[in-house]
Amino acid sequence: MNTHVVIGFGPAGAATARLLVEQGHEVKVVTTSGRGPEPGIEHIALDARDAGRLTGAVRGAVAIHGCAAPPYHRWAGEWPALASSLCTAAEATGAVLVMLGNLYGYGPVDGPLTEDLPLAATGTKGRVRAAVWEQVRDLHAQGRIRAVEVRASDFFGPGVTDGGHLAARVLPPLLRGRPVSTLGDPDAPHSWTYLPDVARALTEVAGDERAWGRAWHVPTEPALSVREMVGRLAAQAGTGPVAVRGVPPLALALGGLFNPLLRELKEIRYQFDRPFTVDSTAYETAFATRATPLDQQVKATVDWWRERLATTG
């Protein structure tokens, strides 16, 4: 039995922590506010940007899973301090640093996204995420830490709520047979990474030194458009066909005047206005985790949302 520390308890952090418990590990979860008791998980309240306190929490652990992120509109100001603290704790304790990343750092790309592409983003959020990985990678190359990054496309599945493009804005109206709205072109192919597969990849690379020192894409099923995904979800739900409408750019701009999240989406709109597909061949060639079959993803997601709505109204 080993001890793992998970930073953050959003959808990815929670899924990773619970999977580690299932695998027989001791798990500590670090969040700013802490949480109530949960079987197999010790919840610790501290600001992960506090390198000294974080190092104390990590001592004795074999891995740190970096699953936290600052609020979307505060990435530029807060990501550097968080990344530096994670690196300090990893260097001081010898724990492997497993970073959960995304695809923003590549910027707009023609064709499938692969790990060997340059991190050429020009937008603020993309450059911030690229800089975080570059810092971690350089420390690994210097032999000061052992680290790996696992990159996912947009999360989808049980546990994904407000932050998902196929979550709170889609599933509740869909389950009522109502139209849904989406960012960008609803017919553009898009990769959706299933949340349980994110957790499986994070736990797998933590214990396999062949993975360390580079970035990997989480195994992800072939890309489908929002309209195609909504069609599959509606068929599973038995609601009949559901209309899918793209949000007009003007409406998004107006909404951004009052909503910080909508305002920040302007930078990544390119991911939804054109094909945005991830290639996870490298990971699947090297390791055991495979993407969960799409039919299973869809069924689990519909079932989870039905239960959630039944209990929350």
In short:
This protein is of the alpha/beta class and 313 residues long. The chain contains 12 helices and 11 strands.
Topology (elements, then pairings):
Blueprint: E1 3-7, H1 11-22, E2 26-31, E3 41-45, H2 51-58, E4 63-66, H3 75-93, E5 96-101, H4 124-141, E6 147-151, E7 154-156, H5 171-175, E8 180-182, E9 192-194, H6 195-206, E10 215-217, H7 226-237, E11 244-246, H8 249-256, H9 260-264, H10 270-273, H11 281-286, H12 294-312
Parallel strand pairs: 1-2, 1-4, 2-3, 4-5, 5-6, 6-10, 7-9, 8-11
Helix pairs in contact: 1-6, 2-3, 3-4, 7-12
The number of helical segments is: 12
Shape verdict: globular
The rounded distance between the terminal residues' Cα atoms is: 40 Å
Helix content class: 40-55%
What labels would you give this structure?
two-stranded parallel ribbon, alpha/beta, single chain, 313 residues, 41% helix
Report on the structure:
By secondary structure, the protein is of the alpha/beta class. The longest helix is centred in the first third of the chain and has 19 residues, at 75-93. It starts with a strand and ends with a helix. The chain is built from twelve helices and eleven strands. Helix 4 links the parallel strand 5 and strand 6 (147-151). The mean pLDDT is 94. The chain has a seven-stranded parallel β-sheet with strand order 3-2-1-4-5-6-10, with helices on both faces. A two-stranded parallel ribbon has the order 7-9. Helix content is 41%, strand content 15%.
